């Protein structure tokens, strides 16, 4: 491990001490006076003053809490199929595919082999290291799914340097949690998951196994809550600034009472190291998932089968809503519970079983927390009218994965028409591979409002302001009606690759 010399830091400390000593001397002269100067202020004897200063200056530490919880934290060593060189680059290089967030998102599971340019490609076997913690005296322990997902054999190392074999009871990729079991003892030290949510600004302590350095303790505060980092449909992370690094994955973050408020799982970093932005899975989520993993070995979630998106201010304005709240249904999947119950694109789901829905993520969490087979009463806003729809939930399909296509890039076709939204469109039926519904985008003005909202050539516009369109004339008519109705924005239903979504655009000139 590279080490750096502390010389500069020592020099700075000395300089600071010198400065403080100088200030103290000046203060003494003012307080006690020099030769021929009378002392006008009462003063404390120097010995008493020194004791008082030491008492005030002594910081309150975390040693008592750490001494109590640290024995329950474990290192997790996984032997199995290592990631390929290209896969390993996804954790270490700036060539990550996808969004800019994904380019900086780093997982902490520490690869056992260095990422060298000449390293073999293809399949390898190696070691990975992470962290975890016992939640019961009989050996149940929590860690991250991504720490153990490729594991063939798993070992854990306790704080007293003892090694045990562990087996995986169950994993849940959607929340990145895994439950392990270590046999042979019934007196393991363990910690409890917190019963209350932390507040922003609360002190927190992270304990883990960064870079294989077991039993490492760092401290910080809760920086934010409810973070969505694009890791999955149930993102609800606690953001902390306690330093966490590779190998901290799966380790606990404690509050000052010694309860686990979260499981460390990711950091936001341009260089792969800690810059003070870490994310932990909340204890509330951990409790729910671990209970199912312990009882069933897997997690089942309710599913209604809709593509949803947030209600932004522009979307709310185009729909005539007072507040940007709820989840907008972009599409109900065929034969899904939602489709069978009559949920349609353009509906805004505002509540589940009487509980208000803040946004699309909130809907996904509330539905996912319900058991398959249960009936949920959804509050729905449709064309300004409120109604209640009962939906019988199904089990979340194993193959539900979002797939985004690139569309038909750069095609020029006859009949293109500029819409004054920064888009050129043509009937979808006139462009091979675009289907027979809607109008296909054949050009995007890079300086127009459509480009700002992510439109690209090949996207298919299915509806404008709630009206199906099949020609540029239909688009123009729908835009004219929206303007005459006093709308400042217009809502477009768009198919991009395999995904369907709503996009709100400001109305341009007539």
Number of discrete domains: 3
**Which class of secondary structure composition applies to the elements?**
alpha+beta
- Broad CATH class of the largest domain: Mainly Beta
The CATH architecture of the largest domain would be Beta Barrel
User: Roughly how many Å apart are the termini?
Assistant: 66 Å
Q: Per CATH, what is the topology of the largest domain?
A: Thrombin, subunit H
Shape: elongated
- Report the β-strand fraction as a percent range: 25-35%
Radius of gyration: 29 Å
Number of DSSP helices? 12
Query: Which stretches are poorly predicted, pLDDT < 50 over at least 5 residues?
Result: 1-42, 83-123, 399-416
Number of strands: 29
How is the main sheet built? Answer: 7 strands, antiparallel
Q: Overall pLDDT, averaged?
A: 76
Helix content: 10-25%
In brief:
With 510 residues, the chain is α+β, with helices and mostly antiparallel strands.
Secondary-structure blueprint of this entry?
Layout: H1 7-32, H2 46-57, H3 63-69, E1 73-82, H4 85-92, H5 100-104, E2 105-107, E3 110-111, E4 124-134, E5 140-143, H6 145-148, E6 151-157, E7 163-172, E8 177-181, E9 203-208, E10 216-227, E11 237-240, E12 252-254, E13 260-268, E14 278-282, H7 283-296, E15 302-303, E16 306-310, H8 313-319, E17 327-332, H9 337-341, E18 348-352, E19 355-356, H10 360-368, E20 375-382, E21 385-392, E22 394-395, E23 417-418, E24 423-427, E25 439-444, H11 449-452, E26 460-464, E27 467-468, H12 472-484, E28 489-496, E29 499-506
Antiparallel strand pairs: 1-4, 1-6, 2-13, 3-4, 4-5, 5-8, 6-7, 7-8, 9-10, 9-12, 10-11, 11-14, 12-13, 13-14, 15-22, 16-17, 17-18, 18-19, 18-20, 20-21, 23-24, 24-25, 25-26, 26-27, 26-28, 28-29
């Amino acid at each position: 491990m590279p080490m750096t010399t502390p010389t500069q830091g020592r020099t700075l400390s000395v300089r600071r001490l010198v400065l403080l000593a100088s200030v103290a001397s000046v203060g003494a002269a003012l307080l006690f006076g020099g030769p021929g100067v009378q002392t006008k202020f009462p003063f404390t004897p120097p010995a008493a003053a020194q004791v008082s200063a030491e008492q005030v200056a002594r910081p309150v530490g975390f040693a008592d809490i750490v001494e109590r919880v640290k024995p329950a934290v474990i290192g997790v060593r996984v032997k199995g199929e290592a990631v390929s060189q290209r896969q390993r680059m996804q954790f270490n290089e700036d060539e990550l595919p996808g969004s800019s967030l994904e380019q900086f998102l780093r997982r902490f599971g520490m690869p056992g082999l260095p990422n060298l340019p000449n390293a073999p490609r293809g399949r390898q076997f190696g070691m990975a290291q992470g962290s975890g913690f016992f939640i019961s005296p009989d050996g149940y322990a929590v860690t991250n799914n991504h720490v153990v997902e490729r594991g063939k054999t798993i070992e854990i190392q306790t704080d007293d340097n003892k090694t045990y074999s562990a087996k995986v009871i169950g994993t849940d990729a959607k929340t990145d949690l895994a439950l392990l079991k270590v046999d042979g003892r019934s007196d393991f030290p363990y910690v409890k998951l917190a019963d209350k949510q932390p507040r922003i600004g609360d002190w927190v302590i992270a304990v883990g196994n960064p870079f294989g350095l077991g039993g490492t303790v760092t401290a910080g505060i809760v920086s934010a809550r409810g973070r969505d980092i694009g890791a999955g449909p149930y993102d609800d992370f606690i953001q902390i600034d306690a330093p966490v690094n590779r190998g901290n994955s799966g380790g606990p973050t404690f509050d000052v009472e010694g309860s686990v408020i979260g499981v460390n799982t990711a950091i936001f970093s341009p260089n792969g190291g800690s810059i003070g932005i870490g994310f932990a899975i909340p204890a509330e989520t951990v409790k729910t998932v671990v209970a199912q993993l312990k009882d069933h070995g897997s997690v089942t979630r309710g599913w209604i089968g809709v593509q949803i998106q947030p209600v932004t201010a522009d979307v709310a304005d185009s729909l005539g809503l007072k507040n940007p709240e709820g989840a907008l249904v972009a599409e109900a999947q065929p034969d899904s519970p939602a489709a069978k119950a009559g949920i349609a694109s353009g509906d805004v789901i505002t509540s589940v079983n009487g509980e208000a829905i803040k946004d699309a993520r909130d809907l996904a969490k509330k539905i996912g927390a319900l058991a398959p087979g249960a009936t949920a009463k959804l509050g729905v806003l449709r064309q300004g009218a409120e109604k209640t729809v009962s939906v019988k939930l199904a089990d979340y399909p194993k193959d539900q994965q979002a797939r985004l296509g690139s569309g038909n890039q750069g095609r020029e076709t006859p009949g293109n028409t500029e819409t004054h939204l920064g888009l050129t469109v043509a009937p979808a039926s006139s462009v091979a591979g675009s289907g027979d519904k809607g109008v296909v985008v054949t050009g995007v003005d890079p300086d127009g409002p459509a480009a700002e909202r992510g439109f690209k050539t090949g996207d298919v516009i299915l509806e404008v302001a709630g009206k199906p369109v099949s020609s540029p004339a239909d688009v123009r008519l729908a835009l004219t009606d929206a303007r005459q109705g006093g709308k400042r924005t217009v809502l477009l239903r768009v198919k991009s690759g395999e995904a369907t979504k709503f996009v709100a655009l400001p109305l341009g000139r007539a």
